Amino acid sequence: MSSTKPLPFDEATVRAIAEKYPTPFYLYDEAGIRNTCRQLNEAFSWSEGFRNYFAVKATPNPHILKLAIEEGLGADCSSKAELILSEKVGLTGEQVMFTSNNTPAWEYQAARELGAILNLDDITHIEFVEQSVGLPELVSFRYNPGSARAGNVIIGKPEEAKYGFTEQQLFDGYRMLQEKGVQRFGLHTMVASNELDGSFFVETARMLFDLVIRIHQELGIRIEFTNLGGGIGIPYRPEDKAVDLAWVGNEIKALYEQTIVPAGLDPLRVVLENGRMITGPHGYLVTSCIHHKEIYRKYVGVDACMANLMRPGMYGAYHHISVLGKEDAAADTVVDVVGSLCENNDKFAIQRSLPPINRDDLLVIHDAGAHGHAMGFQYNGKLRSAELLLKADGNVEQIRRAETYDDYFATVDFSSFQ
Ligand SMILES: *Cc1c(COP(=O)(O)O)cnc(C)c1O
Question: Fewer CB within a 10 Å sphere, N or C end of the chain?
Fold first, then answer.
């Protein structure tokens, strides 16, 4: 099957970039990221106070975060480093959602200092937060529906997932908050990851809207926002179809009008915390072919490796590969595309049909803009690559330099080896 995915640049552009910044490098497309943010905002424009809190962990680079903020997004953080990044780009207070789990007191402290919304992962954390850093006026809970929801492949079954409160704990938890004088309440769940079926998110909204109504009936509490989580998938494969955001937005709007409005609970803010769908499709790992090898299979060796992008090795994830300048050539050669780690799962593609590839050809690995560079590591002494931003005006900005050996060795003390 020969199928292609479009690219926002051509071979000449990337060759010129590669002269200045050696491969491998990540290249992000500013116009694409902005466009996606706008589509998502448009789909929920009916909802007063809608906001997608960008999951910082997907692409923790301040220059990328800044683009998202300029498009009206907030930040979803789960660690102190992500809180620091958010603060650096000027996001504070309720523009930041702190959805963490198994959280130490010092990270709650950092979130409190920033004024972030605390989204607690467990009922015991109510007292933990109260005793360590004090409860804020607004507290949100993460709900785990257990066997009430099927979950999906990456995130797994909710009842096997470590996250969140049971339904009974939710009711008990809000009651505790009430008794402790907390005034404002949020409700969150995250039951999907990389989900391409838009109706999944509509069902999540149905589940949360129903809870909001029951919580109001039983406890007299008005939940201020429902956070449907992240997890909107992206079409990694050429034959995959992107989630129809406008459809999802409309369906959730209809549900809101059928349930929340008649219950007298309007306005209820609807928020999301997607990372992948915002930046994933707009980041590319660019790498050069450095070797060929023919044994029992044919291999194409590239200068990137699993340390630059671990999703294929870790999840068996499909990432489309284009060979620049050969987009229209027949994909008639079956190869494994491999890196140089001493690990046999260091493969970007397995038995993939590609055009014949020569040494120094540039390969573009698609859809690497989220959970790509961020999951990079240094095993085997591999260094993390540079990140470059292809700006809407066509210029290229280096937004993170490549690591050096000095970076790699910076944390060890060689003074006794002189
Ligand atoms: C990872 C994560 C997200 C973002 O997930 P995407 O698949 O990138 O949209 C949002 N919320 C929580 C709690 C997460 O752990």
Answer: C
Cβ atoms within 10 Å, residue 131: 10
The predicted model scores a pTM of: 0.96
Same domain, 307 and 343: yes
Atom of ligand 1 nearest to the CA of 99: 13
- Please enumerate in sequence order all residues whose Cβ is within 8 A of that of 412, keeping only pairs 6 or more positions apart, or say none: none
CA of 228 to the centre of ligand 1 (A): 10
Let me know whether 357 and 247 are in one domain.
no
Q: Do residues 242 and 258 both lie within one domain?
A: yes
Q: Residue 397 is part of a domain; what is its CATH number?
A: 2.40.37.10
Residues 261 and 392 in one domain: no
State the pLDDT confidence band at 260, using cuts at 50, 70 and 90.
Answer: very high
Cα–Cα distance between 306 and 320 in angstroms, integer? 15
Question: Ligand 1 centre from 80 Cα, in Å?
Answer: 16
Ligand 1 pocket at CB < 6 A: 55, 57-58, 76, 99, 190, 193-194, 229-231, 273-276, 370
Q: DSSP secondary-structure letter at 120?
A: E
Instruction: Characterize the bridge pairing of strands 223-227 and 269-272.
Output: parallel
Which tens digits make up the pLDDT trace of 130-145?
999 999 999 999 999 9
Return the higher-pLDDT residue of 184 and 160: 184
pLDDT at 152 over 90: no
Which residues on neighbouring strands pair with residue 236, listed in sequence order?
none
Whether 140 and 255 map to the same domain: the answer is yes
Count CB neighbours of 375 within 10 A.
16
